[in-house]
Design goal:
about 270 residues, 11 strands, Spore Coat Polysaccharide Biosynthesis Protein SpsA, Chain A, two-stranded antiparallel sheet, alpha/beta
Length: about 270
């Protein structure tokens, strides 16, 4: 039996009715479980309440702002952030408890075991995945970055030995949904940085570079077909980002072009009358 810790688990989720129960059930050792609902339209909120979690409704496209807002609703000395597709093992929970009781630290970092298509990936850049998710209130943590957000905090962190389980791409469809959510944000940031005009050559070069980096330099081929498929997906994502940058760079803007077509068609009908 794991003793309950004076810690709040914060889960930020949107339409995660399938993954949320497993996440909450791996956090029963926390004194409080808080769901920040980012505009769910499925049974995410209903399930969270049934499983005993507090629910706060707050919508934003920036995960940094969502994480920062959550802090206002935490009253325990410690908090830990999890996504709905992440799980804490009993071994990790015990190590967290021992660490915060015996170490003079303000933050907890964890290595992630990434599961893609039902298989743990140990290559392709995934083996070195590490996240800082646990914080004491004295750390004064602040998150920044609209995508791939990172924490700023005061004090020292401890890297734990036990791994955080991450059920990442469970199928192609869920992966595409993630891509549809984050690639427009990254494209917007790149476009705002005034990068050189994107061409078809740019798009293919970026995709090929990403594929080469993951498969050859980071040895994704050692994870078999699942590793290769994930490398292809990451290359496609990189291409999608730059296609959307190209879209934003067009002059006149693409939407304005459609409006011009609409006006021309309206004029044709007006002439007929």
């Amino acid at each position: 039996m794991i003793n309950q810790l004076a810690m709040t688990a914060v889960i930020i989720a949107k339409n995660e009715e399938l993954m949320l129960p497993g996440c909450i059930n791996s956090l029963r050792w926390c004194q409080d479980i808080l769901l920040i609902d980012n505009g769910s339209t499925d049974k995410t909120v209903e399930l969270a309440e049934q499983l005993g979690a507090r629910v706060i409704h707050f919508q934003h496209s920036s995960f940094a702002k969502l994480r920062n807002d959550a802090i206002k609703h935490v009253s325990t000395d410690w908090l830990i952030y999890l996504d709905a597709d992440e799980r804490v093992t009993p071994t990790l929970a015990k190590e967290i408890g021992v660490t915060i009781e015996t170490k003079k630290i303000t933050a907890l970092s964890m290595k992630r075991k990434n599961i893609f298509f039902g298989q743990e990936l140990k290559h392709g850049g995934w083996a070195m995945d590490q996240v800082t998710r646990g914080f004491h209130h004295s750390a004064a943590v602040e998150w920044y970055g609209d995508i791939h957000e990172s924490p700023r905090y005061q004090g020292k962190s401890q890297v734990l030995k036990s791994e955080l389980i991450h059920y990442s791409h469970r199928d192609v469809a869920s992966g595409l949904m993630k891509s549809a959510a984050w690639t427009p944000i990254e494209a917007k940031l790149l476009a705002q940085s005034k990068i050189p005009p994107v061409t078809v050559r740019t798009v293919f070069r970026k995709g090929a570079g990403e594929f080469f980096r993951r498969v050859i330099k980071q040895q994704a081929y050692k994870d078999g077909q699942a590793g290769m498929m994930e490398a292809i997906i990451q290359a496609i994502n990189r291409m999608l980002v730059y296609i959307q940058v190209w879209e934003k760079q067009q002059q006149p803007p693409i939407m304005e072009r459609y409006q011009n077509y609409e006006r021309e068609l309206a004029q044709l009908w007006e002439n007929e009358s």
